[in-house]
Amino acid sequence: MNDRVVAAFDFDGTITTSDSFRAFVLDAAGPARFAAAALRCLPWLIGVPLGWSPRGPTKARFLYAAMGPVRHEALEAAARRFVERRLGALLRPEMLARLAEHQALGHEVVLVSASPSIYLRMWAQTVGIGTVLSSELQWRDGVYTGHLAGENCWGPEKVARLRAWWGARAPTTLYAYGDSRGDREMASLAQHAWIRGESALPPLAAPGGFGAV
Question: What is the pLDDT of residue 213?
Answer without folding.
Answer: 40
